[in-house]
Amino acid sequence: MKIIDTHAHYDDRQFDTDRYELIERILSDNVLGFINIGCDIESSIFSSELSKKYDNVYASVGIHPGMVDETEEDYTEKLKELCKNKKVVAIGEIGLDYHYEGYDRERQIRFFREQLALAKELSLPVIIHSRDATEDTMEILRELRPEKAVMHCFSGSAEIAAELVKLGIMISFTGVLTFKNSKKAVKACEETPIEMLMLETDSPYMAPTGYRGQRCDSSMTMVTAGKLAEIKGISTEEAISICNDNAIKFFGLDFS
Length: 256
Description:
By secondary structure, the protein is an alpha/beta fold. Helix 2 (41-53) runs parallel beside helix 3 (75-82), helix 6 packs parallel to helix 7 (183-191) and helix 8 (221-232) crosses helix 9. It has one domain (3-251): TIM Barrel, CATH 3.20.20.140. It starts with a strand and ends in a 5-residue tail after the last helix. It is built from nine helices and eight strands. The chain has helices at 19-28, 41-53, 75-82, 105-122, 134-144, 158-166, 183-191, 221-232, 236-251; strands at 3-8, 31-36, 57-61, 88-97, 126-131, 149-151, 170-173, 197-199.
């Protein structure tokens, strides 16, 4: 059974030496398809163009919170133009990131709100990034209630996961779910209904156990699927089937 990776960054320089050979190999092997994620205008353009190159590759476009300081004020018009490509299936990744010193909280919040509004205007799902910013992120989500959203690379508590689910927000797990010290993520996975879960790699980052320290690619989504299956007490094939269906329905993907 082939698997869908809902979040990858093949524009990253770590793929410069073998990008297209790798993509063709994984798509012919165990990867049904993937979504390449925009983090700024440049990577959003790349993602859109990559989606045109391969039938089973889709794209999202957006401004990552870590990129807001470098982004010009007309960015929403540029994103809107990219969304004319029907294989752009989401706005993202967007959100808040207070991890590194010197971040501009107010600018991040403004960009997050503006992009949530853009997604609503275009009737597109949003892919949310939140790092060391749970309180502000949840406050904005409670207020604005995006129609369709997924919290990507989730590693938070079961309590936050439960509130996200109440808001109708999907939860997506990376290889972090397989890490020995990820007890919170495992507990959150245990308590989240499987119909609210998706799988991703965040390639080239977050390589799962067995591949730690290596460049991650979409084929490694299988390892996370195996861990999710173990947590849920089902077969890996069933976990893949359910999470694939969730992704297809959420993003409106077509692999026929």
